[in-house]
Design brief:
single chain; 290 residues; alpha/beta; Leucine-rich repeat, LRR (right-handed beta-alpha superhelix); two-stranded parallel ribbon; 16 strands
Amino acid sequence: MVRLTVDLIAKSASKKKHSLPQFLKKLTHLNFSNKNIEEIDDLSMCRNLTVLYLYDNQITKICNLAFASNLTHLYVQNNNITNIENISALKKLSKLYLGRNSIALVEGLEELRELKELHAEGQRLPPGEKLLFHPQTLLALAESLCILNINKNNIDDIRDLAVLKKLTHFFAADNQLHDLQELEDVCGQWPLLKRMDLRGNLVCQKMKYRDRVIAGCKSLEELDGKEISEMSRQFLINWNESRKGKNKQKAEGVLTGQTSHPVVADFHLGPRADNCTSVVTGDGFVPNQQ
């Protein structure tokens, strides 16, 4: 078993101008990616560590990082991690990379109030299972998370993610999203969203998919890898407002029992000059003198 220890760190350092304790204390960046590491040992002597690269290893459990109160970036993608745990002490963490592990539930991030990026793409899950999110974790991240990557996780519902009000980038390609109305409703609650990628989802095949998403996400600058021009956005926003207005009028007409064809309404309510008739124009009814 390969363990990440302070001795291993010391051996990897080609030149040390200070004693080992001093060297470890000054260490801010540590890269032990692709080293067949299975376990993280006590690294508390590295108390000023800010960036830790441990991707492409054999790690099964995140542990022994409680000392790293200054850590801002943690890269543990492509390991064998099944649970997100033991990272509540990482109060300054802003970027967390967990992609290509075996995590079924995103949880345990309630104390990470400065987390801005969460990458959890491509989890290796049993057939039929999908990546889930703990409600408390989502609420805790609502005011900080800007970038969320959940590509390739068999996800078919994103309604719980609507609370993430600060999202600017959302990547959910190659999932099972299919409900266009649900997508519109959720994206409408992300006022800062600038970039979104949903390629490979069934919803992309829906009629007017791109038009309706752009119209509903007024700050969106790129959708599925294609930029959105300001002219296109404004046109689609106006089109969407018109569409909603027509739907509202139709719904109100049904509720009040009014016909959807006002031209057949009774216009003989009250006195009318004998020499006048009603003429239908594009602007409504106007009197026409005979």
